[in-house]
Design brief:
OB fold (Dihydrolipoamide Acetyltransferase, E2P), single chain, Elongation Factor Tu (Ef-tu), domain 3, 4-stranded antiparallel β-sheet
């Protein structure tokens, strides 16, 4: 934009020289440099603070599915991008070992309950001791707790959808073996709730951004168009500020000025597009300061929108 305005000024100056509206003095010949510096200092540098711009993205919550039990997969019930409802079964793990554990514990519990009943009857008649009753009572409670855990594991052989959504990665096949180790993910699940819209801004461009300020978005998927939005809130945390747990003092290190996320409230037209997760673009926020710079930013953003016709990245 600054190049365009400077070139326009030079063309007008050449026209003025040709028409002899101004004399070709050294001052006029050097005036494009002064004009460029004026634009830079008076408009384009302040624009970075009063009408900041940054990358925009459409996001959604995802869950990396890891089963609570390990075993061989005997059934896969979903396909790629198939919509599912909460608690629908995504895949099943062979329940044989877990069912046998439940059967064993149920048999042991039934026997312990029988022995407890007999001990209580003998104690009432004076032919048994209270110690036997207490011992069998503890055994029944212990077996019941083990049975509850075994029943939970048996239920977890059916891996269910944590919410309404769809699976984006279905490389799992019948016969594969899955683990309950967090690093060994079986599927990637994406929620189908309303997506969230977010933008990233450098720290030195962030301090004038406040909730409720107007914004505009130029999307890669819709070149030539600009959509209304507004600032919802600034995510007041950066990964740089998260210190890891350690038994020693934090070692000194170079701290990069990482950007901050700003959550955006989309306008009705932007919401109605039904954008896919991961859609990107450029956003401009118009703060309550420096209205003159807003005009320049609006022009720059619309040029960005037009550029999206020919620049895919």
């Amino acid at each position: 934009m600054i190049v365009f305005l400077t070139v326009s000024y030079i063309l007008l100056l050449l026209l003025a020289f040709k028409q002899k509206w101004v004399k070709q003095t050294l001052a006029w010949k050097l005036s494009p440099i002064a004009w460029c510096l004026f634009l830079l200092i008076a408009l384009f540098i302040p624009m970075q603070f009063w009408a900041p711009s940054g990358p925009f993205i459409v996001g959604q919550h995802s869950v990396q599915l890891v089963p609570n039990v390990a075993g061989e997969v005997v059934e896969v019930n979903v396909d790629l991008n198939q919509e599912v409802k909460k608690d629908d079964v995504l895949f099943r793990i062979d329940p044989t070992l877990y069912q046998s554990k439940v059967d064993i514990l149920m048999a042991q519990l039934k026997l312990a309950q029988t022995r407890l009943g007999e001990a209580e009857m003998l104690a009432e008649r004076g032919a048994g001791s209270v110690y036997d009753v207490e011992q069998f009572t503890g055994q029944v409670e212990q077996l019941q707790a083990q049975l509850d855990g075994a029943l939970y594991n048996l239920e977890e052989t059916a891996v269910r959808a944590p919410a309404d959504g769809y699976v984006t990665s279905v490389g799992l096949r019948k016969g594969a073996r899955v683990s309950n180790i967090p690093l060994a993910k079986s599927m990637a699940f994406i929620e189908s709730a309303d997506p969230f819209f977010a933008a990233e801004f450098f720290q030195n461009h962030l301090r004038f951004i406040e909730p409720g300020q107007a914004a505009e978005v130029a999307l890669k998927m819709y070149p030539g168009r600009v959509f209304d939005a507004k600032v919802a809130y600034v995510v007041a945390v950066s990964p740089t500020g998260q210190l890891p747990l350690s038994g020693v003092a934090a070692p000194p290190k170079e701290l990069p000025a990482t950007p901050f996320w700003v959550v955006i409230e989309a306008g009705e037209e932007l919401k109605a597009l039904g954008l896919p997760i991961g859609a990107t673009g450029t956003i401009a926020v118009y703060t309550s300061t420096g209205v003159a710079t807003h005009v320049i930013r609006k022009v720059v953003l619309r040029l960005e929108a037009i550029k999206n016709y020919i620049v895919p990245k």
